[in-house]
Each structure stands twice: as C-alpha cells, then as structure tokens.
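[agent] plan:
  1. take the single chain provided in the ticket
  2. run structure prediction with default settings
  3. attach structure tokens to the ticket
  4. add a short note for the reviewer (M.T.)
[agent] executing step 1
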Amino acid sequence: MLFDLTIFGIRDPGSGIRSKKALVRTPDPGSRIAALRDTFRRLLTPDITTLWVVGFLLLCTYLLNSLVFKPILQVIDQRTGAVRGARELADSAAHKAAAAAAEYNQKLNAARAEVYGQMDDMRKAALDKRATLLAATRATVEQELKAATTRVQQESLAARETLERDANNLAGAIVSRVLGRAS
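[agent] step 2 finished; step 3 output follows
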C-alpha cells in the first residue's frame, strides 16, 4: 500500500526518498503506526521558534491591551458615564418642566375661575342694579301716570264745568234774546 506522508513532513528513513511528494511504501501496519507516532511526537515537541512566537504574541497582547484597549475602554466608559449623567439631567429637567407646566396650568385655571367668578359677580351686580333702576323708573312712571291721570281728570271736570256754565250762560242768553224779541 502506498501513502503520501510527505504532507505531514514524514519521510521514510529507509527509503532515502527526499522529494516532497515522494510516495512511501509501508509494508506492514505496525511500521505505519510507528511512523505516525514518530510524526505526532515531532509535532507535539515544541521547538524554540514556537516559544518565540508564543512569547511575541503574549508581548503584543500585553502591549495592545495596555496601550490601546485600556485607554479606549476608559474613554468609552467616560463617555458612557457622561451620556448617562446628561440623560439623568435631561430627565430631571423634563420632570421639573412637567411639574412647572402642571403648576402653571393649575394656577392659570384658578385665575380663570377667579376671573369668571368676578365677572359673574359683576354681571349679577349689574343685573341687580338694572332691576333696581327699572323698579325705580317704573315707580316714577306710575306716579307720574297717576298724577297725569288725576290732572287730566281734574282738567276734564273743570272743562265740563266750564262748558256747562258756558252752555247755561249761552242758553240763558239765547233764551233772553229769543224771549226778549218775542215780548
């Protein structure tokens, strides 16, 4: 059976083949297992370059964390705190404004009610004054009417008496003329 083990960097030591894509002939499964064990042992054994890479990655992580990420996170935290504080101030101001508006509306409604009450009192006073003036005017008119009626009746009686006297005088004069000619 032929296997391409050069992908894993495995070379068959006995074959002498050094090409990258060399096919290794493994005659039995036991030698194949031994070759795989040897390969895994080489892969798992750290070499100095691996340690340098890991150390460099840890150093870069530390430097990035302390020089970049922590300052950025601090700025973000400060901004978040400032935004939170500004929101709290805005909410507080909004609540104060709502309370002031409610108080203003309450005072405005109370002032309107007071003005309407005063207007109603003034209207009632004007109506009472009007009724008083109307009653006084009616009384004056009734008195003047009674006085005029009495005066007219008296003048009428006086005119009747005058007419009766004048009629009697005229009748007497007519009678005396008629009788005076006839006699």
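[agent] step 4 note for reviewer: The chain has two domains: 1-45, 47-141.
[agent] ticket updated
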